[in-house]
Each structure stands twice: as structure tokens, then as C-alpha cells.
Amino acid sequence: MKHSEDQLGTGVTPVVTLPLRPPQFDSRCNRDSEIPERNRPKSMPRTARFLVELEWSWGMFHERQSRYFVSSNRARSHWILWSRSYDDNEECWNEELYMYAPRKGVPEKVAAIYLLLDTMRYEVKSHNLDRFHWIEEEGLLDDDDLEAIAQEVWP
């Protein structure tokens, strides 16, 4: 488990940068603007790449644990960010097609970075979400990628 803040107590935050955002990369939240039916998968494909598991903990019995994945749709026309959040009342993971964007000319990792960044921005705006407290598990995105995303979303 990695903590998202400086663990050495130096107060120094590393400077990390993101790759350039492709000009045609226009992501949309599926909650506000559903992906057209012809482009929407019924469920997350087995081939979806694991990005990261993040955790927030605001107090006893008040926490959030979310896993993020990226895939394309069957037609390979869109990149899709999937969110899996743990529901401790039902003791299960709930899966949601959360964010999507056109795929053409955008590498997987660049898509993953900007889909997650846009997801975090959306949640800050809609739910006043604060910076994640822990990086539980890295996948396609590593600690440097997540630090760069955090610096953009929560300067």
C-alpha cells in the first residue's frame, strides 16, 4: 500500500508531468451523456486493463475504495473507463461504465491518464471529492502518473 502524500516528512512534492493531451480527445461522463447504444458494451470486457485501485478514508465506516480499468468498445471506436467500487453494505463490487472518449490515434496509456483525470475532475465538481488518500494497487498507471493527475486536479 502506498500513501499519496510525502512519507518522508520533507514537505517536498515531486514535479511530474503528463503527456500532452491529444486535441481530439473529448471525454464524456456516461452519467451525463450516455455513450451511443451501438458503441456501448454490455459489461466490462475480460480484456480491460487494470489501471489502479484508489482509496479514500474520511473516518470510521466512511470510506471509498475504487478500482479503475480501461478498454475499448467492440468497434474499437472509443476508449472506455470503467469504475468498480466496493459496496460494503451489499459486500460486492459494483461496476460502471463511467467515462468514454474517441479512440482514433490515442494510445492506451494516454487515454487511461486523461479518462481518469477527467473522472476525478468530474467527481470534484459533482461530489466535492478530495484527493485520494491511498494508492492501494498500481496497474497500467504508476505512482508518478497518479501524482501528475493529482497535481492537475487538486493543485
Q: Mind explaining what this structure looks like?
A:
With 155 residues, the chain is an alpha+beta fold. It has one domain. 20% of the residues lie in helices and 34% in strands. It contains two helices and seven strands, in the order E-E-E-E-E-E-H-E-H. It has a seven-stranded antiparallel β-sheet with strand order 1-7-3-4-5-6-2.
Mean pLDDT equals: 89
Q: Can you summarize the main beta sheet?
A: 7 strands, antiparallel
Number of helices: 2
Structural class: alpha+beta
Give me the count of strands: 7
Task: State Rg.
Answer: 16 Å
The amount of beta strand, in percent, is 25-35%
- What gross morphology would you assign? globular
- How many domains, in number, for the residues? 1
Q: What is the CA–CA distance across the termini?
A: 23 Å
